[in-house]
Amino acid sequence: MTTRIAALVATLCLTLLAAEAFAKGKGDWRGYLDYAYVYSSADASQLAKRLDSYAAKTGQDLESYVGQKWNPKKENDVQVIEATYRRKAIGYLLLYLARGEPRNLDRAASTIQKLSNRLGRYENRYWFHYIRAHQHLERRHQHDFVGEVLDLWFNVIVPLETPYETLQTLSLDDSPNSGFAAALPYLYENVSRMVLLRTQAKNMDDGLDPLGAMLRLLGDGRIGAYPEVIPVKASSRAYLDRILHRLEGPESDAGSLTFTFALLKAGRVHEKARRSIAQHGLEEESMAAIDAASRAYQLTYERADTEQGRCAVYTRALRQIGELYAAKQRLGVDAEVTIPFDLDGAIETYEKLHNTKKKRWEILGYARNGRKAYFEAMRGLWEEIQEATLNVADYHLTQAEADEYYAEEHARKALALYNRYLGFFNAYADGTDGKGVPDSAYFAAHEAAKGVGDAFLVYAPYPTTEEIDLATRRYQSALRIFPFDRTVWASLASALERQGREGEFTDLARPAADSVVRSSAVASWVKKRRPEAARIEKLRRSLGDSQALMYLGFAEAGDVDNLEGRLAQLRRQKAEVAKSLKELRARKARVGSVPASQTVGVGSVLDSLQSDAIDREIAGLSAASKRLDKQINARSRTLPMYREVIATDGMSDDLRSRRDHPVHKLLRAMYHEHDVE
Fold this sequence. Notes:
The protein is mainly α. The protein has helices spanning about 1-25, 30-35, 45-60, 60-65, 80-100, 100-110, 120-140, 140-170, 185-200, 210-220, 235-250, 255-280, 285-305, 305-330, 345-355, 370-400, 405-430, 440-460, 465-480, 485-500, 505-515, 520-525, 535-545, 545-555, 560-590, 600-645, 650-655, 665-675. Among the domains are: about 1-200 and about 210-220, no CATH class; about 560-640. The longest helix has about 45 residues, at about 600-645. It is elongated and about 155 Å long. Mean pLDDT is about 85; it is low at about 1-10, about 15-20, about 20-25 and about 600-605.
């Protein structure tokens, strides 16, 4: 919407400028054409409307004007001859720009050619190169087009810059005698639009690199620098800035303009595919759009000359893969589409970037952009590798759950993806120099490790004993990276139960729990009240309690009310035991209060036996009371902790949905604390 509004504002401004130009002229086509440099870059439909409007004012349409017969041999004034040829050529050019008819462009080129020996005048020289550049653009002769644009720049624009600056300094740039030099801001704009917009409209996507330096000069105090002449909103400043940002940013190819245009075009096609999926799902129209985006990225990849460019393409293409599989999972559609990019190729590209890090990273294409852009590109590629991995693996696990017949196949595919990412993570997230590794990589490794365990124990129908053992170890790894996911503790306990090893839970879980309790990174995070500090502190407190840890492993979230009900039952039992003990002690007191002189013979023996029986009952109930006290105290202390832990659920979802979540930094610090230890 913003782009459309900006375009509308620009068109309106150009229309007003055109009207002003007409007013400056003689009120006929001659005056209008003499100021054609003001509006020749207008949108075709708007230009056509203006031509019709001026035709109504002059009583003659432009086609009739330029087509009227004229004999230059009868004209003695050389300047009139030049002006007539120039105006006719401009008129034909405007008809071409408004209607898109190549024959009018050819007429413009043949007419302006008659001034090839009269190029001492800057105005003639400008239109000569400007028209010929359009002709080569129409014919897609990229080398000739570039040559004409550079001739225009060096032979017209550069020589006019000093005179224009002088005129502007003296406030004479709007003087009637300022000549063609006063047109310079419009010439900047026309060249900018021709290179930025018309080349793309004509699908000229190769051989444009020599124009990159010229665009940088246009962006340096030229386009948008004369708001009193051309309002900034009417200029191509915003789009030029976007192109220059790409040329100088991490998604460049050593500053190649050809590559930048190709990647931008592929991005537009990709965005169209996104909109189609959102509107139509994965129907035929969407699949065609996805295929078009894939082919556009493939063409862009072929345009890349450096690893920088190839990294930029893989980053975008993997995003498309991740989005496609997320849509397939969401829509429940198993749509088949061939995308000429894969995770192995992306990882190979990352490896090339990483392996050159300590040598000459500049040769990869980042010499112009700097080391910061180099690392930014590496992190961006990594993030798309992890997201595509997780999205595709999630899709296969969903398929495994939905289709029992193919469950094993899909579970194995998910396993391969998770293991590929874990191998990648272990190779490069070693803590030695992590500038090329994003903070979110650690949580992704947690998800992959957890995914291996789930694939074996939840989705694969027939895991082997060895695979169950591997799943157990992967759950331990997942907890080491991110110990704040309650469900993984329960998964570890479940894996041990399947092997008859549930008694080992505390021994296997304790190291991960202790790493949180003893972590200086966690302590500092909580002390400074960083994001999620309150939730993390509750989890840390629970992990420091062995009995609370057992709840994490063996209790279900839905069991809390039942557990608290059983705690209430224990308290009632305790009350009943206490009541029984009180009664027994009273009986004991009554038996013990009978004087010995009153008990003789058999009676004394019975009393002694009764007293011993009461003592045994008291001892038994006292022991039961102690056991109940221990259970009540333990559950009273740990159940509130466990309820607090349950209330903190959701952090995993938050981290998965936000690559920039602050807790990613904490996980990174915690992970590498183990390296120090």
